Every structure is written in structure tokens, then in C-alpha cells.
Amino acid sequence: MFEKALQGDRRYWAWIIFLLAVMGIGSIFYLLQLVNGLTVTGMTRDVSWGFYIAQFTYMVGVAASAVMLVLPFYLHNAKQFSRMVILGEFMAIAAVIVCLGFIVVDLGQPQRLFNVVLHPTPNSILFWDMIVLNGYLLLNIVIGWSNLHAEHKGLSHPKWVKPLVYLSIVWAVSIHTVTAFLYQGLPGRHYWLTAILAARFLSSAFCSGPAILLILALIAKKVAKYDPGEKAVQTLATIITYAMVINVFFFLLEVFTAFYSDIPGHTHTLAYLFTGLHGAGSLVGWMWVMAVCALLSLVLLIPPQFRQKPELLVPGLILLIAATWIDKGLGLVVGGFIPNPFEGITEYAPTIPEIMISVMIYATGLLILTVLWKIAIGVKKETGSA
Amino acid sequence: MDNNRRTFLKIAGISAALGLSGGIPLSLQAYTPADVEYVPTKGQITGKRWGMVIDTRKFTKPEDFQRVIEACHQTHNVPDIQGNEEIKWIWTDHFEQVFPSSSNPYLAERYEQQDFLLLCNHCNNPPCVRVCPTKATFQRADGIIMMDFHRCIGCRYCMAGCPYGSRSFNFSDPKPYVQNLNPDFPARMRGVVEKCTFCAARLEQGQMPACVEASNGGLIFGDLSDPDSEIRKVLRENFTVRRKVELGTNPCVFYIV
Amino acid sequence: MYDSGKILTGLIIFLLLITFPFWYNLGQASYEPPDLVLPEDSQQCIEPTQWMRTNHMELLNTWRDMSVREGLTTFVSTSGESMEISLQKTCMDCHTDKVNFCDECHNKAAVSPYCWDCHIAPEEVANGQ
What we know:
The structure holds three protein chains of three kinds.
Chain A: H1 10-36, H2 51-64, H3 67-75, H4 85-106, H5 115-118, H6 125-152, H7 161-184, H8 197-224, H9 230-261, H10 264-274, H11 284-301, H12 304-307, H13 310-336, H14 352-383
Chain B: H1 2-29, E1 37-39, E2 50-55, H2 62-76, E3 90-94, H3 95-98, H4 109-113, E4 115-119, H5 127-131, E5 137-139, E6 145-147, H6 157-161, E7 168-169, E8 193-194, H7 200-204, H8 210-214, E9 219-223, H9 230-237, E10 240-241, E11 253-256
Parallel strand pairs in B: 2-11
Antiparallel strand pairs in B: 2-9, 3-4, 5-6, 7-8, 10-11
Chain C: H1 4-18, H2 20-25, H3 49-70, E1 74-76, E2 82-84, H4 87-94, H5 102-108, H6 115-118, H7 122-128
Antiparallel strand pairs in C: 1-2
């Protein structure tokens, strides 16, 4: 099957070379970071996690989103997803690799990474995150590849994959729950110390991930002439809409709890993010953009007659992706560190090396996604399987 | 035929794995001579639960703080980095930063002006140890929260976990920022977290912590589990407070204010 | 066999590549242990020289764990001699010349242990003060 990734037209190769070039440029900046240390980033003693960990968190959600196709397809026999499930599984592979990449570049001593395995520490949530992320990666590789291989050979899906599929459904929930536990179990970080954080992570994952998948699938429809099917698009759009409504609702629960109780620890970060605190507020603009994007996306997605029109669905999805990315990929992680344990405020902004290294990792993910989807779409077209 | 080859490969693989796993312990054994011993150093100071009292009444002039801080930083090769990549083992701050929940707008003037010493609280229930994924930060039997700089991968989870801001990360190579390297103690490399170790290395050599020695009685260090120790006597006779007790970390640094 | 030409060429290239270290070293002088500047005032290290040469890295790893993690800071050698477990205070008290002792072998063997990223070599103290 792999040969399908080696047969492409000029556009395909231009895209591959472009991604490789971006990775190459980014790796120069990573080299810079390896030599000089994390001082090349905008992170500080007070804001000790930044853009990398925020992107990691966002992409865990994207990885978990495959379950929004796998679950209806395998448990509820939602046949409309038959042309799309493999795209979701393969996107999960690329997304998990992006997650792992962000973890590695965030480490001060990446060459000691295997200490996590050599000295296993079950009381650390990071240990469990390592297990669930790698497990999810493996599950999706095995399930996606063997099912596609079976279709390639004209056989039905192998029986032994079925239990793995069920496992992967539970596992997808676990990756984002465990990632939320990384944050929500820390005493003294009030913005994260909330029981609803894992639920918020899942709801935002189940809207943002499928939204990205749907946009990418629509691009594939244009570029590779592979139609995921109108019914699949609409069902997924409905799922995304419900998840986004729940996501916004959960966020408003946080706002109510913070401001009605008016306990300083609970209000400080939200105040910093939306109004600024003690004259510092570099994220205020972003957060209001997020709020507007979130509301507009709901306006475009909730009425069925709107989201059935591609020219409204696509902007709705893009607004949704922007809103969830600002919330999770900027505000959540940085906000947890502001104010610091001494009620002081240190602001944070990523530096150019930090952004370039992040771009490198995203390009790697896109490369993996492109190759995997090229194979999947190639096989699907060849067998004509619905 | 195909099946046979498969079975053969499987058996070969399993035997190879077993062989390797048996071989590793054997080869490790070969490294250690049988009759060497590792023992505690004679004359070391031992305790069951170390703690510290900071008598803030004895810290009145800037020199009182300077003496203590310099003693620590000189002993441990703590780099002098300005700005927000600073490395802090023992440092000072004002009342409302040190005790945010006990501050009020009508605070006695002497507290408002006064500096307070800060260091790792060596909590009895330490969140930093709970979150560390490699046991690079661990709790010793005598309560000290110790750091193994060799093992730290620099994930900075402990910095997120510590509610006291007691942990610092080496964003860049710290050695150029250390004046007068102390040849009796290592420095650190970039990419690892560091903090106060309650002078575990000095206790093992029979010496009190460097800051305590330099404090002229302003810092009382001792075994909290021993009712006859000096620290327990001080705690019995004075009203003391600790930082952020509501978080349940059970800090072992006490302040007489 | 299909494509036997291509397969055989590929195999030959592969074999040449993986045996490259042998070809590369062919005809070059065999390994000579470097000349080390040994400590002047002591005849033997804490364990026999040959054993130290082979095992010092493992010993140092054990020292590290015992001292930092177990709180066992004294080492009793095979000959019954006790010493403080410390790279800086014990090892480099005798081996005062890192450049002509440690580095000589490490460079020749192309290994770069990161001990001195943190630990302070006697030279550094001499230069810094």
C-alpha cells in the first residue's frame, strides 16, 4: 500500500517539498534551542509552560476527536461514515505525533526523555499521559492500517481488530481526560483547579477536532476528488454543533462560579484574560476575539438551514477552530500561571524561535497526514469501497 | 511453509528477548566488585523530620538578609541571573506576597516595610514530588525534598505544581553566572530545575545548613519529630505561621512574625 | 528471480555500507592507549587500575545514586579504605589534571560525558579565581 504515497502529481510533490522545507527551517531554530537552552523561548520562571505545552494540549483534543467517527460507525452502524473513518484514524496518528513532538521540544533535557520509562513513576500524571498517548498512537496505527489493508486485499475487516476498536473508543476519552488531569490536580493553580476541566477538554476536543477533520476532508474533496459523502459531512457538522454548545456552556459555568462566589483566586485569571489585571493584559484582545468567534460560529452552525450550506458551514467551522484554539492554545495554559504564586503578574509571549519550532512540528504532522491520507484515499478509490 | 517460517521467527524472537533480559542483570553484576560497601558518613547529622523556624524579628537590617543569602548562594554555586529567568534558593519578598491570604489593607506599618525570607518549604505532602515523572525530585526519609539534577528531564511540571514558587529552571547554562565557583559543590547545567535542598550535603558532613550558620540565631533548624529539640522548644514558646496551609501541603518552614 | 540484478546490487551496496567501519580503519594504526598524566603522589586508585579503567563509569553512576538518592555518602573500597563519595572532592583531589587525564581517553574514544557540565574541574577553579 505504501507505494501509493510515492505516486503523485506535481502538486502533491510540491506540497511535500514545501513541508520538508518548512521542517528544515524550523529545525535550525530547534538546533538554536538545543545549544542555548529554553532561554530562546518567551517562557520565564513565572510562566514556565508556554506555547509548546498549549499546542500540545490543543492537539490532544484533535487526536481524541477520531472517536466522534469511530463510535457512531462501529457502535451505531452509522454507515455514512464509512468513507471518513479511516481519515479520522489517520488524522489521530498525525495529531498524536504532533503532541509528542511538542512535549519533546518543551523539555530542558530531551536526551533524558527515557528517564520517564527507566524510572516509572505512577504518581505522576505525566507518566500516565505518556502511556495513554503512545497507546492511542499504536491503536490507531494498528486499527487504521489493518482495516485499510483488508480493504486493499478485498477482504472484510479482520475480526481481531474489533476489540481494539472498542478499546480505542474508551482510550480516546482517556487521552484527553489524563491531559486535563495534568493541570486540574495542581494545588495553587486556581484557573486549572476545577473538576469540570476534563469535561471542558472533552467537549472542546469533540468540536474542534472534527471541525479540523471536516475542513481537511473538504480540502481533500477538492484536491484529491475524494468525496466523503454529503450525509457524513452533515452528520459530523451536527455532532460538532452539539459539542460546541456544550463547550461554551461549560466555559460559562466557570465564569459564573468565579464571579458569583467572587473568590479572588477564581476570578484573577479570568479577569486578567478578559479585562487585564494591574495594567497587564496582553491576551485581552485575543480573548474577546475568541468570544466573538465562538458566538458567531454558533450562529452559523446551530440553524440546520445554515450549516447545510457549504458557504456558511465552512466559515462556521473556521470560526469554531479559531475560538477553541485561542481558548486552549493560548489562554488556558498561560492563564494558569497568571497571577503567579506571589500574586504578581509576569506576562508571556512566544518568541520567533518558539513559533518557528512549533511550525516545524505542525509541518511534520501535516506531512504525516498527507502521506497517510494519500495512501488511504488511493486504496479507497482503487477498491471503490463505499 | 509460510506458517512454519512465522512460527520459527516467533520462537526466535521470544528466545532472543528472554536471552537479552537474562543477560542484562548478569552483565551489570560484572561491574560491581563484590566486597565494596556504601555506608553513611560518620558524624553526619541525622533527624526524622527536618524543619526550620524563621524568626523574622531577628532580620531587621538588609545585612541580616544579605549574609544568609550569600552564604547559601556561595555554598551551592547559585548563579546570579537578573530578570525573570532568575534562580532562587533563598530570597526575600514583602508580607502581602509571602502571605497573600493573611494580608489586609490596615497591616501594621512594620510588616508593610519588612522583608521576609523565602525558601523551599520542604512540605510533608509535597506536590512537586507527586508530579515529577522521573523521581528526580523525591522525599528523603528525613523529610528533605531532594533533587537529583542528574535525572531531571526539565519538564518543569514541578514548577507548575509548587504553590510557593520555590523552583527555578535553568533556561541557559548557569555556570557563567556563578562568581567564585565553590569547588566542594557542583554547579548545574542548562535544562534542569533546581531549588534549596536544606543543605542535605552539609548535614551528611556533620555541618548545619549554610543559611542557619550565617543567620546569628535568626534561623532555627532542627528535628520536628523530637519533642526535646530546640526547634520544638521555639515552636512551643512562640506563635508561628506557615505559608498557604489551606492547600494541605504541610510546609515545614515556620515564621515567627 | 525477478529483478535479480537490482537486488544483488542493492545487497552489495548494503553490505559495503554496514561494513564501512572495517574498511575505513583498514590500514590505519591500531588503537594505542593515550599517554596519561597520572597523579604523582599516589600509586594506586581506589580500586586496581585495570578495573578502574574498565568500570569507572559504572562506579561513578553507582556513587551518584548512593550519594544523592540513598544518603550513603561514604564508599568502602575492596581494600577496606573509606572515602567520601564525591567526584570533585575525592576523584579530582588526586586527578587534578582533567585535560591530560580524563579528556585524553574520552577524546580518543570519542565519548563526551557531561559530568563537567555541572561538576567543577580543578582547572576551572584555578582559572576562575
